[in-house]
Amino acid sequence: MSAVDALFAKLKAENRKAFVPFVTAGDPNLDVTKKLIIELERRGASLCELGIPYSDPIADGPIIQASYTRALDAKIKLAAILQMAQQATSQVQMPVVSMVSYAIIFRHGLEAYVQDAKAAGFAGAIVPDLLVEESAEMSQICQKHDFSLIQLITPTTPRERAIRIAESSSGFIYYVSVTGITGERTELPASVVDQVGWLREQTPLPICIGFGISRPEHVRMLSPVADGVIVGSAIVKRIAQHAAEGDAAILKAVGDYAEELVAALNE
Amino acid sequence: MSTEIQSTASSQVPDAKGRFGDFGGRYVPETLTKALDQLADEYAKAKQDPAFQAELDDLLKNYVSRPSPLYFAKRLTEHCGGAQIWLKREDTNHTGAHKINNTLGQALLTLRMGKTRVIAETGAGQHGVATATACARFGLPCVVYMGEEDIRRQAPNVFSMKLLGAEVRPVTSGSRTLRDAINEAMRDWMSSVEDTHYILGSAVGPHPFPVIVRDFQSVIGRETREQSLTQIGRLPDTVIACVGGGSNAAGMFYPFIDDKTVEIIGVEAGGRSNKPGDHASPLTYGQPGILHGSYSYVMQDEDGQTCDVHSMSAGLDYPGVGPEHSYWKATGRVQYDSCDDTSAMAAFDELARCEGILPALESSHAVAHAMKVAQGRKAEEVIVVCLSGRGDKDAAEVARLKGQ
Predict the structure, then answer these.
(1) How does residue A54 score in pLDDT terms, banded at 50, 70 and 90?
(2) Annotated catalytic residue within A49, A133, A134, A227
(3) Predicted confidence (pLDDT) per residue in B312-333, tens digit
(4) Please, which residues 8-47 of chain A have a Cβ atom closer than 8 Å to chain B?
(5) From the CA of A130, how many Å to the nearest CA of chain B?
(6) Nearest one of B299, B295, B328 to B177, comparing CA atoms
(7) Are B294 and B246 spatial neighbours (Cβ–Cβ below 8 Å)?
(8) HEC per residue, A70-125
(9) A193: distance to nearest CA of chain B, Å?
(10) Does A154 sit within 8 Å of B291, measured CB to CB?
(11) Largest Cα span, chain A
């Protein structure tokens, strides 16, 4: 049982939902990222998704792209991210998972990545460009190390395929709310509720919904069907907006925002 | 030459998962899977459909003006002194480059799939113009993503695309070149995948793009093979093409893969020097990794981040390469070499003055390498170079680079 499995078992027993914030490692710097992880837990996050900056993120919209570019321009390397993650994860209870391109995992070596990430306190990985048909080796390695490999299902995924993805996923299923890239939306498609409802019948795994979520009303709409909601761009945007005002301002802006969404999620 | 090349390379690739040996595959967000499966299915059906092939053949003949000539460059040959240099004249195609072979094929697939909008990326602008042209021909709305740096250096093509009714969207992220244009086109497709087809222009990307682009471009090699037998009485000793993503090269090489007496050479962009960042030669200096949806040679740092690359030629200014080229390199079937900016520019001048042909800067890399190879060889030997495009688009950039 990975730390992610334990978390959702606990939440279920308490009848609570997971608030899952995303932050980009190294934006604006690794020290702030560490403080953010700690602050987000204090403000009610259940699980944190740490984005490993990548040079060619095709699933990401302008906000997250820009944060990756800033981090890479500041020469943030994987080794330094793992070091920071180790310090951060030793100071929080919540599981932390990496959002990481397969290009990075492949270059590092599959088994080496899982071992090094696990040593740094990561409980799992979301690999947005690793499809189920290419994931057998990674999946086996993750299983061996009790490391969750969280797979994505989208509105364009045919139903039979969704079942296959669910069967090969571990930790939770990342349901992508929209056909598109990451980034805030005014409204989410109403069909997402039905689609997740259907998916729930097919799998015992918890389902978290991400992409486009930024407002309390989004969270209220999804909380009846989801086990958790993932919020990325809206947080990364706040970090960038307050970067010039110093660490305390960033932590306060992100923390206040997180608290607002956590409250909406567990109303 | 006539010694057999020892290689395990097969023309029976890729497999059902899009693997050319170890290379290729599909590494993209789940959102795109359905569209890629649909494309692979539709292409498989089209290949079996004589009506599809007939329509494409008619377009290639009457619209593109194929077959393109196989031309003996007599004065260039004499100038070099050595093997005969023949040019496969893809520059004579409608729109001035090989790219139209692929865009017409994919435009027909777009219609077959019932999709109503087309997007594309472009580097040198040749693929953008060819896509805009095919879309105008079939009445499809078209958006072309192009890096800001490339918009600057290939201005005539930008204007052409607009005249053809396409919208050119400048890409300002990253290095503002071909790689970033592909990223932006992919992002557009992530949102528009239900009604839009992405006409990818090179033999790169997730399965089935590398095989589709190779197949549509293979008309180049098939014609060259037939024309060699008719005009020269035998197959060439050596076939040479430039390699950026590698679409003209894949199309030129593929029909010769099983002809083990034919030596095949791909020429990458050597840029300013062989230092990282100064060239665009992943097969020569890079290593296998993941970029733009497939596993192939790429210029990456130790973390797997794609490196910036350089070539004076916008169409070769790309850090990755098509997976089939990686397969041909690994099996030893094709030899890959690198040609720097200076040599390519010299070849541009030589071909202009000896033959009255302005080659594209991309194709100039292949011409430069052919001139080098020819000099050491006997007069009865035959080298065929794929002259993938014409150089009119480059005239202003060449003048700028020469300080004129």
Answers:
(1) very high
(2) A49
(3) 999 999 999 999 999 999 999 9
(4) none
(5) 6
(6) B299
(7) no
(8) HHHHCCCCHHHHHHHHHHHHCCCCCCEEEECCHHHHHHHCHHHHHHHHHHCCEEEE
(9) 18
(10) no
(11) 49
Q: How many separate domains does chain A show?
A: 1
B-chain residues near A105 (CB < 8 A): 304
How many CB atoms sit inside 10 A of residue A179's CB? Answer: 18
Find the CATH number of the domain harbouring A186.
3.20.20.70
Would you call A158 an interface residue with chain B, using a CB distance cutoff of 8 Å?
A: yes
* β-bridge partners, B118: B142, B197
Closest Cα in chain B to A60: B187
Smallest CA–CA separation between B395 and chain A, in Å?
A: 32
Residues of B in contact with A154 (CB under 8 A): 29-31
pLDDT in tens, B370-401: 999 999 999 999 999 999 999 999 999 999 99
By the CB < 8 Å criterion, does A156 face chain B?
A: yes
What is the ipTM score, two decimals? 0.98
Sort out which chain B residues have CB atoms less than 8 A from A152's CB and list them. Answer: 29-30
Dump pLDDT digits (tens) for A109-162.
999 999 999 999 999 999 999 999 999 999 999 999 999 999 999 999 999 999
Looking up tokens 């059906």, which residue turns up? B45
What are the chain A neighbours of B176 within 8 Å (beta carbons)? Answer: none
Mean pLDDT by 10 residues, chain B (404 residues): 83 97 98 98 98 98 98 98 98 98 98 98 96 98 96 93 98 91 97 97 98 98 98 98 98 98 98 96 98 98 97 95 98 98 98 98 98 97 98 93 88
Across the interface, whether the CB atoms of A59 and B33 are under 8 A apart is answered no
Strand-pair category, B19-20 with B23-24: antiparallel
The alpha carbons of chain A give a radius of gyration, in whole angstroms, of 17
Structural domain boundaries enclosing A125: 3-265
Q: Do A129 and B194 touch (CB under 8 A)?
A: no
Q: What one-character DSSP code corresponds to residue B389?
A: B
Closest to A103 (Cβ–Cβ): which among B26, B173, B291? B291
